[in-house]
Every structure is written in C-alpha cells, then in structure tokens.
C-alpha cells in the first residue's frame, strides 16, 4: 500500500511530501526545498529508504535542497518539465533574493512531460503538466490513493501566484479546470502550502475557480 506524510520546510513552510510503500519502505520525496536534516530525520524515524526526488517546479522553497540531497544520497532527480529550466538555473539568485541558504543548480536525471508516469515499488503515479504558476510545473496523481500532489497550482481557498516571470493567470485556470478537475471531486490534493482539501470542495467554494 502506498502512503505519504508531509514535512513543512523552509521559512515559507513548504509542504514537502514523502511517498512510500508500506511493505518495502521504499520512498520518494516531493519538493525537498530545504531543512534537509529535519526532513531526513523524519524519513529515518519512519524507517524508510529514500530512492528518488520528484519535483513539481523549481521555485526555491520547492527545489532549493534538491542538489545537495541528490549528492548526499546519490538520488535521481525526476522533474519538473523542461520549461522550468530557467528557474533551476536561477536557484542561487532566488536564494539570495529571499534570504535562503545557498542553493545549487542541477540537471534533472529525467525531465517530465504531460502524460508521463513515475513509479515507486510497483506503484504508478500519473504526471500532468500544469503551467501557469511556472511554465514547467507538473502534478503527481495517484489514483490508488486518490491523492494529487499539486505544488503551487491550487491551494485550499486560493490558487498559485502568477506574477512571477512567465506566470500566466489564464493558463493556470486552464490547468486547474482541464487537468485537475478530471481527477475527480473526491480526490484529496496536497498543496505546496497550507492544509489539504478536495477538488470537489474547491470547485464549490474556492473564489478563484468556483463553478468552473
């Protein structure tokens, strides 16, 4: 059975999720933005073996710890979409701008595209390209768990910012309505910040996308 837990990291309290197979204890981490010692302590506490890094997008609070973590544990970096390469290259500047620890650039082991899949211990998650917050943002959907790890595309009661370079509001709304809603109203999503919610709840009450 596939399970997960979330560890808030960085001063931005980014929801770094750890997905793992209950039987084998194999794990993947989604968006290791920083605070790696805290994150690795939680992974050890759960008795897990970390095998992969999955990235939704390359903003500093989501990707700032990626290069160091990959180097420490010899892990492959999976994602995001190639359109976020300029954000990866700008990680040192992002860190300086927001007062984060020094962040390194990296080259993903594998870029992701819409319709791709990622696998962990025989479990498959589906990848959807959901641009708008960043041009290369992707989302990881597990039909098995009825969970979606959506990064900064959608939040409980809000949506991702689109005022960063190459953000676009209309594109973000299209990503939500065309790529997320078809996953089902009962799908629980884990956002990059704040509490979990369901797509159905957001379709009814989120002021940015209600009724779409």
From TrEMBL:
Keyword Phosphoprotein in record: no
Residue intervals of the Metallo-beta-lactamase domain: 13-193
Family annotation (InterPro entries): MBL_Glyoxalase_II, Metallo-B-lactamas, RibonucZ/Hydroxyglut_hydro
Xref: SMART domains: Lactamase_B
Keywords: Hydrolase, Metal-binding, Zinc
Region (Disordered): 193-212
A Pfam family reported for this protein in Swiss-Prot or TrEMBL: Lactamase_B
GO terms, molecular function: hydrolase activity; metal ion binding
Cofactor: Zn(2+)
Keyword Hydrolase belongs to the record: yes
Name of the featured protein: MBL fold metallo-hydrolase
């Amino acid at each position: 059975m596939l399970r997960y837990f979330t560890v808030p990291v960085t001063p931005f309290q980014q929801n770094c999720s750890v997905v793992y197979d209950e039987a084998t204890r194999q794990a993947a981490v989604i968006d290791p933005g920083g605070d790696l010692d805290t994150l690795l302590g939680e992974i050890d506490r759960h008795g897990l073996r970390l095998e992969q890094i999955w990235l939704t997008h390359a903003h500093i609070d989501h990707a700032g710890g990626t290069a160091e973590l990959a180097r420490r544990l010899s892990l492959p970096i999976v994602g995001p979409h190639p359109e976020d390469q300029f954000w990866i290259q700008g990680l040192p500047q992002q860190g300086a701008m927001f007062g984060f620890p020094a962040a390194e650039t990296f080259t993903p082991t594998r870029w992701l595209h819409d319709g791709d899949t990622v696998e962990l211990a025989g479990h498959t998650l589906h990848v959807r390209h959901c641009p708008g917050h960043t041009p290369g943002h992707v989302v990881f959907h597990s039909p098995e768990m009825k969970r979606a790890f959506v990064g900064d595309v959608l939040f409980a009661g809000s949506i991702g910012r689109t005022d960063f370079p190459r953000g676009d509001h209309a594109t973000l709304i299209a990503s939500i309505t065309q790529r997320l809603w078809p996953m089902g109203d009962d799908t629980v999503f884990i956002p990059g910040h704040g509490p979990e919610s369901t797509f159905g709840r957001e379709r009814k009450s989120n002021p940015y996308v209600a009724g779409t």
